[in-house]
């Protein structure tokens, strides 16, 4: 009987711990840049480092004026150089108003690179950042 009691206590502890982890890892909705939104002159690389980690199923919300857009850069080299030749347009200049453009992180462990290519947004305006989605527990 004593062994069953220990097993029951262990099971309760395991279920409690799993519930706590599940409660802390629910997908979040994150406004890119916080109150600054997606704009020229804000350091988004610094913002992403300060707001990480990001998890699979988190939603990134890009809110911006019609003078910007959102691209997915194909790799680190393109990201560093602000080379949009193989980049994919995620949201045009008209999609950042209102509730903004929502991008759901779905690829586990793979770096995702984001940038705006309007004028000097990427190079001089610091409008680029990357995230590495982690598993949600």
Automatic annotation (TrEMBL):
PROSITE patterns under this entry?
Answer: PHYTOCYANIN (PS51485)
Q: Which Gene3D superfamilies match?
A: Cupredoxins - blue copper proteins
Domain (Phytocyanin) spans 28-135
Cross-referenced InterPro entries: Cupredoxin (IPR008972), Phytocyanin_dom (IPR003245)
A single MF term (Gene Ontology): electron transfer activity
- Coiled coil, from the record: none
Q: Where is the signal peptide?
A: 1-27
Query: Which keywords label this protein?
Result: Signal
What PANTHER family does its record include? GLYCINE-RICH PROTEIN-LIKE (PTHR34052), PLASTOCYANIN-LIKE DOMAIN PROTEIN (PTHR34052:SF2)
Q: What is this protein called?
A: Phytocyanin domain-containing protein
Query: What species was this sequence derived from?
Result: Actinidia rufa
């Amino acid at each position: 009987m004593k062994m069953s009691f220990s097993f029951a206590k262990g099971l309760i502890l395991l279920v409690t711990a799993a519930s706590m982890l599940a409660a802390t890892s629910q997908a979040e909705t994150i406004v890119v840049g916080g109150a600054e939104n997606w704009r020229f002159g804000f350091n988004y690389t610094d913002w992403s480092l300060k707001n990480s980690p990001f998890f699979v199923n988190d939603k990134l919300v890009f809110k911006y004026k019609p003078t910007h857009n959102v691209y997915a850069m194909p790799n680190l080299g393109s990201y560093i150089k602000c080379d949009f030749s193989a980049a994919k347009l995620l949201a045009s200049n008209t999609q950042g108003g209102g509730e903004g453009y929502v991008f759901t992180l779905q690829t586990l462990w793979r770096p995702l690179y984001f940038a705006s290519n309007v004028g000097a947004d990427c190079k001089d305006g610091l409008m680029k950042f990357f995230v590495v989605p982690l598993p949600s527990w």
